[in-house]
Amino acid sequence: MNEDMKIGAKIALEGVKEELIKVRAELKRKGYDNRRGFTTIEAYIDDSIKELK
């Protein structure tokens, strides 16, 4: 994977993480706190971003 691809993948993962944060905030606003699975997805995204550095 070349450097440009790594940068693109990192940007895409950061965008996914931002959307996940928005979804969590919206669910919390509607009264659904700490839905299962979100921490697993966040950890996967964080790990993937670290691998690209």
Automatic annotation (TrEMBL):
It comes from the Bacteria. This is Uncharacterized protein. It comes from Anaerostipes hadrus.
